[in-house]
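[09:14] KT: can someone run the structure on this one? pasting the chain below
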Amino acid sequence: MWLRRLVAVVMIITCVGMNVLVLVGFFSPSKKPIVNLLSSTSAPSTPPPMVTITAKPDAITAGSFSAISWSTVGEVSSCTASGGWSGSKTANGAESTGRVSIPGNYTYTLTCTNSGGSNKASAIIAVGAAVTPPSPVVPKNTTTVTASLYCGGSSPCYGPREVGQHAGAGNCWGWNGDRVYNVTQLDSGFHMAKSGISIEISQVCGKDLAPALNGSVSAGGTTRNHNPTSKSNVDQNETPYFVGYFDANKP
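[09:31] RB: done, structure tokens below
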């Protein structure tokens, strides 16, 4: 008899204990993992490069040239041209448009990219119809008066005064023969990298480039004649920097 009572008591205790455990588990707060917000903070990304592009002059007549200059600020992985030009470009540079023969508006766009994204900038060149030079005026009962025609009527046309206005290190023009070149990018660092000889930019800005090409200008205490082909106006080394014609007789 006492054995049955003992079994009954044990079963009652077991049932009560299980119910208690269920109630405790139901009402106890769940333990959630603590998230460390500081560890999820990502490192700041690289900002996209800033791009600046200009065209000088930005208005020309058909059959003339203009010059595109551009620069970037920040890290640059690549730059690509589109619109009126194409291909890969350096982060900073200058380039001739070449002869533009058809009137209209031409857009030159440059897109530069890095790990943080890309930015682009555009320059527009307005090309008007070619202008026929006026005929010389011949007054009655007088001798023939011939109108001045500089650069043979080619445009843009620069004289010594206009070239001299671009004689700063940040905007350097010079001339060789009858052509004007934007040699802004050909600074002392560029010249040193290409030839191993430093050169003072003041010796070529706003001046005739022929003496420098002929080795008559001292560069870093040394004179060295250039290759004959690099002294020709039609040489491909100079053509990208061609911005207009030069006439020493122009005021």
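[09:33] KT: thanks! Helices lie at 2-27, 160-164, 188-195, 210-213.
[09:34] RB: yep, looked fine to me
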